[in-house]
Amino acid sequence: MKSTKELADPFDIVANALGCPRASLSVDSARYRDHGWDSLGHLEIVIALEKAYDISIDDKTIETYATMRGIQQLYEQLMRGGNCSDS
Amino acid sequence: MIDLVDAFISQVLSHPTLPAVEHKGVSTSYEELSAFAFRIAGSIRNVASTPSPRVLLVLPHSTSAYAGMIGTLIAGGTFCPVNIDGPASRNAIITSTFSPDIILVEGTPPSFLDNAPATTPLVDLSRIGAHSLDGPSTDYSEIAYVAFTSGSSGEPKGVKIGRGAFSHFLTIAGSYFDLIPGERWAQFTDLNHDLAVMDVFLAVTQGGALVPLSSPKERLMPATAIKECGIAIWQSVPGVLDLMIRANQVSPDYLAPLRLMSFCGDKLYPDHLKMLFSARPDLQVFNTYGATETTGFNTINRLTSDNYRYSCEAATVALGDDVPGWTISLHGGDSVDEGEIVVSSDCLGLGYWRDEDRTRNAFRQLRPEGGEERRSYFTGDWGIRKNSRLYFSCRTDRQVKIWGERIELDEIDYLLRKAGFADAYTIVAEGVLHSFVESVNAVDQDRVRAQLSKSLSFHSIPKTIQSLQSLPRTNGKIDRRALERSVT
User: What does pTM read for this prediction?
Assistant: First the structure.
């Protein structure tokens, strides 16, 4: 796992993956709610999270990280030194 | 022509113990699927008050959904599959428009059925009775199923697919796939689409094993499912390839089990083929063309790594040759090599559900040069021929496809007007939907999009909704180019 100092900001990760302005995202952003966050957009996000946070891609993570709130919680947990599999 | 129920039963008799469905580690043999379908047919007949009942299938991607389709036809009825994960308002409209005699569910019914008449029986397939029909009903509806698609009047429109025509299609199309009994056939497409119904019946009338892909990972990374489930046959819209490409899974390792991929419903690009054949030079790929209204696909281009380059002389891959029983012609162009694609056949859809006016307008008699008058469907697709090969060019109307899903822009505009705007017009710019509404105030886009999401699927919701004091017009017509320039 990467050290907490290296962890990228989750809003930056999602904005980069979707190719949208960071300001257009909020904690309420979610798949099939925000434009661009469709299946392909979600795949981009999950792949980016896998790379940035070392998450595994499985049924659980695909659904848990389908909301900005879920991704934010993952980030906070990792910043506290927790393991993403605890979420 | 063999009726599709007889074709299924023939497979049951030939390969009773072969798997018909493999789902989440559970295998259902042809014998077991048949027994389940006949029990469903028995339940339908028990509660049906008409000889040809209308059966709404409110079921997930599963053995139950496939047995529900087959069971309805065994009972002599007409089925209408809905996408249980689709917008609730849309599903409620489909339920009301189809006005089913029976609704098949599994477990707790979804909320969109709350307003269905209390007198409509709900049959829970997880607790189905033991009563089974002795044999298929010989007195059956001429309509096999009804598929609802986007409608320009603001409400989804149902297309009636004839049982005889669909049976004919399955016999012809089945011969192209040349399925080896037991081969695994991925069932990826949402059940409300005609492509999903084609998956089900092409597989079970040829001895294939359907593999419903329903888990989040299978939906998001379908090549993982190809590898892990040993999928031999894949059929879907071409957009799914983009998921595989992005996941870096168009590789020999992931695609090893595949024998054949068949695409329909949207544009297949030369780059798609290049990648596929680079990963798997021995793969067969079909590019097919058809509309829901024309029953299955009506052209087929059988592509290999040796021949595909000849079909790539335009922006998209050539559509191929006519499937026997369907004739493609081009009308209204400046030369014989371009025009609106018209499909003529005795096997077209039977028309629109309870909409005779729309049916008369869309299905017309056409007399080809030197030929006999035939029932014909004007697709609204513009085609061109290059070196005698047919290519899709563009639409002639306001229907667009995003991720293979048919979207009538008029439906979006209708719903925006219904939301309170004096007028509305939606355009597509670089594959993205943008709506313009007449309003003196700025639009609360999140609120309006949330409102639209109750009736429209995600892909039909515009990215931007801009307010204008009035929509730009030239000679009374909307100035689309001016709107395109206004996209922010």
Answer: 0.89
